[in-house]
Write a structure and sequence with these properties.
Number of strands: 6
Order of helices and strands: HEEEHEEHHHHHEHH
Distance between the termini: 32 Å
Oligomer: single chain
Helix content: 40-55%
Strand content: 5-15%
CATH class of the largest domain: Alpha Beta
Number of helices: 9
Largest sheet: 6 strands, mixed
Structural class: alpha/beta
C-alpha cells in the first residue's frame, strides 16, 4: 500500500511547501528501539507526517523546504526560527500555558512578569476577536495594537532577578517579532492547534505500541498516516480512496487537495 501511495505522498509534500500557512510540530518516536522524531506539517487542507532520525533544521527542511516563505505558525522550538523567509507566528497558547505554570510556583516578588505577560496576551486575543467581529476599525486596531506592543516592550526592557523570569524574558525577546503577527494578518491563527491536533493521535499510537521496528516501517507509517489524516481533513472516506489506489495499474499520484497558489 505504501508503494502505491508514494506518488500521492510526494504530491502532498509538494503541496504543503506551497501552502500559504503551515503549522509544524514534532514528538519523540522509536524506530528499532532508537529515538527518532515524528514530524507533522499541517495546513487547513492537508497534513504531511515524516518519521526522521533527528529534530533539527535538516529534518524540517526535508519536508517544508529551506525556502518556505509562507506563514509559519509554530511553537518556540529554535529550529523553526531558521526559516528566515517565512512570516512567523509563535503559539500564543504555549506562552499562556507557560505563564500559568510559572504563576503556580512563583513567589509574590516573581509573579508580576508572568501575570503581566498573560494579561497582555489575553488582551491581544480579545483585540483579534473585536477585529473579526468588525467592532473596531483599522485605525483603532492599529492604535490598540501599538499600545499592546509598547506594554510588552516595557516589560521586556527590565532586568529580572528570578532565574525563571530571566529565562522567560529572554525567550520573549527572541520571539518578540512573532508574538502579535496575527493582529497584522486577519485569518492567521494565533496558535499551532492544527499541528497539535495532528500530532495527538500519533502520541497515542506511540504509547500503545511504541513505534516502528525498521526504517522501512517508519517510512510506510509516515506515508499512510499522511493520507489518512488528509482524507479526514477533507471529509473523504479513506477506505474508498485507498481502494482506488490499490486498483491502479501502476502507482501514480491521486489528487487529494488542489494546490492553491499563494
Amino acid at each position: 500500500m505504501a508503494r502505491r501511495a508514494e506518488p500521492t505522498y510526494q504530491e502532498l509534500v509538494r503541496q504543503i511547501r506551497g501552502s500559504p500557512s503551515v503549522t509544524p510540530d514534532e514528538t519523540g518516536w522509536k524506530v528499532n528501539g532508537q529515538l527518532w522524531w515524528m514530524w507533522a506539517f499541517s495546513s487547513d487542507e492537508l497534513t504531511v507526517y515524516s518519521i526522521q532520525p533527528g529534530r533539527g533544521f535538516e529534518q524540517a527542511t526535508a519536508i517544508l523546504g529551506a525556502d518556505f516563505d509562507g506563514f509559519l505558525v509554530r511553537d518556540g522550538w529554535i529550529v523553526y526560527r531558521r526559516f528566515t523567509q517565512a512570516v512567523h507566528q509563535t503559539c500564543v497558547a504555549h506562552l499562556l500555558r507557560r505563564c500559568g505554570e510559572m504563576l503556580e510556583v512563583s513567589t509574590s516578588a516573581a509573579a508580576p512578569l508572568p501575570s503581566t505577560v498573560k494579561e497582555i496576551l489575553q488582551d491581544g486575543l480579545n483585540l483579534r476577536d473585536r477585529r473579526d467581529r468588525e467592532q473596531i476599525g483599522q485605525q483603532g486596531l492599529a492604535i490598540a495594537r501599538g499600545k499592546l506592543e509598547a506594554r510588552l516592550d516595557r516589560v521586556l526592557s527590565r532586568n529580572y532577578r528570578s532565574l525563571a523570569n530571566r529565562r522567560f524574558a529572554n525567550h520573549l525577546r527572541r520571539e518578540r517579532e512573532a508574538i502579535f503577527t496575527f493582529l497584522y494578518y486577519p485569518g492567521l491563527d494565533a496558535t499551532n492547534y492544527h499541528a497539535e491536533q495532528a500530532i495527538r493521535p500519533m502520541v497515542v499510537t506511540r504509547k500503545v505500541w511504541g513505534g516502528n521496528r525498521t526504517e522501512k516501517g517508519a517510512r510506510t507509517q509516515g506515508i499512510l498516516v499522511s493520507i489518512l489524516q488528509t482524507c479526514r481533513q477533507q471529509l473523504r472516506p479513506a477506505t474508498e480512496f485507498l481502494q482506488k489506489m490499490l486498483h491502479l495499474p501502476k502507482p501514480k499520484a491521486l489528487e487529494l487537495v488542489p494546490l492553491t497558489p499563494r
